[in-house]
Amino acid sequence: MSLPRFNDLQVGFELPPLVLPAVNRTTLALYAGASGDHNQVHIDLDFARKARQPDVFAHGMLSVAYLGRLLTAWVPQTSVRSLSVRFTGITQLGHIPTCSGRVIEKFEADGETRVRLAIRCGNQYGDEKLIGEAVVAIA
């Protein structure tokens, strides 16, 4: 991994996007097992339909994990200082999660140079599913 340098970054810089495989039932089952989140609306079609959903859908925290992958593909995990998100949509089966990030501020705090990023997870149609911000330390 070639680490970004604070002096080389400008506000507006865009992180390399992260495009993932389409969400399918196996994705949901594997995430449920890994996270311990076995909420039936994500894994049981009958339950999802009783909840007035057309089918099961992805865990919101799966999209947060994808945003974590976006960040840690760019900087080491130890550089992440904060991550905050807001859920704005449901990721359905067949959606292709696409994560992006853009530098919106450069600053110093606690003796470190840092950047604030606007982060987003959407689908192949451009529909937003999750938005947020992250702060990372950059040397």
From TrEMBL:
Domain MaoC-like: 23-93
Name of a matching Pfam family: MaoC_dehydratas
Gene3D superfamilies: Hotdog Thioesterase
InterPro entries: HotDog_dom_sf, MaoC-like_dom
GO molecular-function terms, A-Z: lyase activity
Top-rank EC class of the record's enzyme: lyase
Family matches, as SUPFAM superfamilies: Thioesterase/thiol ester dehydrase-isomerase
EC number: 4.2.1.-
Key words, A-Z: Lyase
Full protein name: Putative beta-hydroxyacyl-[acyl-carrier-protein] dehydratase subunit
Protein source organism: Metapseudomonas resinovorans NBRC 106553
